[in-house]
TrEMBL record:
PROSITE patterns: SAM_DOMAIN (PS50105). Residues 61-118 are annotated as: Disordered. It comes from Bradyrhizobium jicamae. The keyword Repeat applies. This is SAM domain-containing protein. Residues 95-112 have a biased composition (Polar residues).
Amino acid sequence: MDIGDWLRSLGLGQYEAAFRENEINEQVLPRLTQENLKEIGVGPVGHRRILLEAITALREESRPSNAAAASGSGKRDPGVDAPNADIKVAFDGSTEPSSASKAARTGNSSNWRVAGGR
């Protein structure tokens, strides 16, 4: 991927030299933060937002689902590839170990359940 072409496609070609001087390549690009963009001279908030949204889109395009990568089938298991899924934990106030924590220690997951019924 040519970073200069990518920046120009976003209408932000004026930052090509800054990206080149700071050795921003396709390996570094997906991990750039708002603070990094400030450090390399991307001043206007609007420009940083455009870049961060485009970086997020690149990450999503290049990330294969875990299920598809594991099986090679291309089918996605929504329960496997959910890094940002909401997780709910119930606490009943008891100091006694719950059946879930007992199951975790013993490896017996027959009593486990996910709130929301997935």
